[in-house]
């Protein structure tokens, strides 16, 4: 069993700093078996994937329409592993949270579709492993991310107790 958060000196933190402290979400041996797990980290629902020896964490609900990413399949597109949303088949890179789509040049009938990025759409969080425990630290990147809409407010599945 792991302690809830990694606070090096054990001191009290202000609420804003605490929101970005690491939270233990489970054991390494468990996620390696299931290749994914879900967790609530400081009131934010996340999904953690273990894919090809790497850990990835992101908001659990798809940026497009709130679909359940933890139920999606991981597939490779343009050499990048992506979670495919089970609702509308949106493709999101595990490493960066970019939305991928295929595009062709309509003025060139012989053109082959190529993979393009919509930019970062899904908020990615940091995963660390310490002594067999998996920790997630929420992203504190200042940009607005499309998945924030479904990760906060009335769309959260888990409502805060306050």
How would you describe this protein?
- This protein has one domain (36-150): Rieske Iron-sulfur Protein (3-layer Sandwich), CATH 2.102.10.10.
- 9% of the residues lie in helices and 41% in strands.
- The model is unreliable at 4-11 (pLDDT under 50).
- The relative contact order is 0.20.
- With 162 residues, the chain is mainly beta.
- The strands form two sheets. The protein has a seven-stranded antiparallel β-sheet.
- A hairpin with a 2-residue loop joins strand 6 (73-77) and strand 7 (80-84).
- InterPro entries: Rieske_2Fe-2S, Rieske_2Fe-2S_sf, Sol_Rieske_ferrdox_dom.
The fold-level CATH name is: Rieske Iron-sulfur Protein
Mean pLDDT value: 88
Tally of distinct domains:
1
Task: Outline the biggest β-sheet.
Answer: 7 strands, antiparallel
Shape: globular
Q: So what's the CATH class?
A: Mainly Beta
In the CATH hierarchy, the architecture is 3-layer Sandwich
- SS field, number of helical segments: 3
The tally of strands reads 12
Secondary-structure content class: mainly beta
- The percent range for helix content is under 10%
Question: Which stretches are poorly predicted, pLDDT < 50 over at least 5 residues?
Answer: 4-11
CATH superfamily: Rieske [2Fe-2S] iron-sulphur domain
What string gives the helices and strands in order? EHEHEEEEEEEEEEH
Q: In whole angstroms, how far apart are the ends?
A: 26 Å
Calculate Rg over CA atoms.
17 Å
Strand order of the largest sheet: 1-2-12-11-5-4-3
Query: In percent, how much strand structure appears in the residues?
Result: 35-45%
Keywords: 2Fe-2S, Acetylation, Iron, Iron-sulfur, Metal-binding, Phosphoprotein, Repeat
Organism: Delphinapterus leucas
Protein name: Rieske domain-containing protein
GO molecular function, one term: 2 iron, 2 sulfur cluster binding
